[in-house]
Amino acid sequence: MNKLDIEEIVRKEIVDTVLKTQEFIVAGNWKMNKTKQEVKSFLKDIKDYDFGSKNTVIVTPPSPYLYLFEEELRYSSVLYGVQNVFPKESGAYTGEVSIDMAKDFGCKYAIVGHSERRSLFGECNEFASKKVRILLQNNITPILCIGENLEQRKQGDYKQFLVTQIVEGLARIGEEDIKKVIIAYEPIWAIGTGETASPDQVEELHVFLRSFLVERYGEHIGKDVPLLYGGSVKPANVKQLALAQSVSGFLIGGASLDAQSFIKINDILNGN
Ligand code: PGA
Fold first, then answer.
1. Which phi and psi (to 5°) does residue 37 adopt?
2. Could you say which of 72, 114, 116, 203 is catalytic?
């Protein structure tokens, strides 16, 4: 056996070990998709599937379908949440979904500050920070999304922008609560475009964000904040992205809509 073959075998073993031992968060963001029938069929496919006990598997459907999740996933290891929430328990907020409603349906997670909410509905860091606070007060884990657009990326000043999104998004909670928040880095130019950030780009950014979190909030907090990557993640690229340093999991849009591709992503992240 030549040196290259041996190196390849060793590399494969390292990859297998990482995938079989590292605990990943696998979160699906359905956005505004699916009919009731399609939701039922997805739930039928995943309900009894063995996702393993290593990864945390989450789906965030459109809110009108939460009752189906509550009914079907009661005894399942798959968790679910809302894509957005209004930062009040109840009240005169036409069209919004409250914290109480999310709790009522058994949601354990809520996406906050997704770039589509920021760009289409004008949501800002301050509003995100209110949601983060009230969610934690109600034992729902916020998935705080951050991400730069293509112009910011090209101009090169995007790292400061991302840092500001984190600091302002976390501004209303105590330092000890920071590690209860999941942060999802989703470069806007890679969302729904099919254009994934390369594993090197993801690693560079995640290492930067991890160092920032450690520096700003101390090692005992910063090293434990889960950092997800999102943007055109699919079965074909998830393995390489999972090997990037400081990636704790993925927020998956398009590829989470199909039960088989969602299952496949988790299988890969289990080393299968
Ligand atoms: P995508 O979406 O996987 O379809 O790019 C990711 C997201 O917006 O959360």
1. -60, -40
2. 114
Active site residue 23: no
**Catalytic residue at 114?**
yes
Task: Give one DSSP letter per residue of 146-208, joined into a string.
Answer: E---HHHHHHT-HHHHHHHHHHHHTTTS-GGGGGGSEEEE--GGGSSSS-PPPHHHHHHHHHH
* Domains defined for the chain, CATH in brackets: 84-253 (3.20.20.70)
Closest atom of ligand 1 to 231 CA is: 5
| C-alpha 226 chain-centroid distance | 9
The percent of residues above 70 in pLDDT, for the chain, comes to 100
Tokens of 270: 């289990």
Residues lining ligand 1, Cβ inside 6 A: 29, 186, 191-192, 230-233, 251-255
Alpha-carbon distance of 246 to 138, in angstroms, equals 28
| pLDDT per residue as tens digits for the range 219-239 | 999 999 999 999 999 999 999
Q: Which residues contact 242 (CB under 8 A, 6 or more apart)?
A: 18, 19, 22, 24, 250, 268, 269
Specify the pTM: 0.96
CA-based nearest residue to 60, from 117, 3, 125? 117
Radius of gyration of the chain (CA): 18
Q: How far is the CA of 193 from the centre of ligand 1 (A)?
A: 9
- Of 263, 248, 246, 251, which is closest to residue 24 (Cα–Cα)? 248
- Ligand 1 atom nearest to 193, measured from its CA: 5
